[in-house]
């Protein structure tokens, strides 16, 4: 978060495989967020959500941040950023403690959360999130906010998210080399859930699928809390590559064709719409119908959706999704994607468009910016928590502050 004059600014930095987006919002006293600046630049230096070239990533971040600063008319000093990649792991854990004074205090809640997160993880892994699901007091289950309630034994169920320490360190290193501080680093699908999911969907049970360039991120919410997360190392770039190979056109033109003309369902594609395809080398351009393009795109998209379905079946929560599936991300807005997803999943599917914002919404009201907008909303709820470098997740006060913010944001 940064200050500029009397403006209270929050910045979300979405460092993705295909693009880097910096979004600046002004937080008003009444709690409203107004978008005042946006910067987007092609991403170079990431592969499947993980930094593989620091210099290229730094340059991409700098360009996006500079553009956002020009639009907003301010200087950016710190950002909330996301993290993804096949290194992300998660599990549900359980903790039990005795209630000290027969009445649940914030310290008791902090201790039981600490107990639930006290599991052995490899030294090269870092805990990213400890997300409470529910509490139990003396066998009374389903308690959302236990503070002030009487009892002897307090139990908690939490969802732990952890990832490769090196992946998180490399993202922070890139941000610092741009002269910025990292306020916090957030799991991308968790951030996206802030901007595209409703409270009712989280209560009924919903699966959020964020289809990005290099990865597809999955988060399942049951009874208002996150219960399952996963990352599939396949995204829209695979479709671009298939188009490039099948149509024999350079990758940058294949990406442009995908964005402007691709359809994920052949039966919805037009036989009359002609697409100009630039060839490699000095060969002349060719013309193809949208239906031929769709015949290339549909098998790859179907393969991706079937991988998502397998992950959903593996989670064990497939029968609990009363609100169905929300598809978001840059590759989700392709024509026919929602129709194909409903055929594969046999669930109601809707397109997740970021909301809960004012200001330059015409620019960012796009599924591709679900994570960037979500980072702003996450930052609004967590901006009073100490910065990532200085915060100890094991401190009682730090855990209680996270709990307080979580209760306010969910109930």
Automatic annotation (TrEMBL):
Pfam families with a match to the protein in the record: FtsA, SHS2_FTSA
Biological processes annotated in GO: FtsZ-dependent cytokinesis
Gene3D superfamilies referenced in this protein's UniProt entry, alphabetically: 3.30.1490.110, 3.30.420.40
UniProt cross-references to InterPro entries, sorted A to Z: ATPase_NBD (IPR043129), Cell_div_FtsA (IPR020823), FtsA/MreB (IPR050696), SHS2_FtsA (IPR003494)
GO MF terms held by the record: ATP binding
Stretches of the chain forming a coiled coil according to its record: none
Domain SHS2, first and last residues per copy: 10-196
Localization (cell): Cell membrane
Keywords for this protein: ATP-binding, Cell cycle, Cell division, Cell membrane, Membrane, Nucleotide-binding
Membrane topology field: Peripheral membrane protein
GO cellular component: cell division site; cytoplasmic side of plasma membrane
Principal location listed in the UniProt entry: membrane
Function per UniProt: Cell division protein that is involved in the assembly of the Z ring. May serve as a membrane anchor for the Z ring.
Stated family: Belongs to the FtsA/MreB family.
Complex and partners: Self-interacts. Interacts with FtsZ.
Protein name in the entry: Cell division protein FtsA
Provenance organism: Candidatus Nitrosacidococcus tergens
Chain's gene name: ftsA
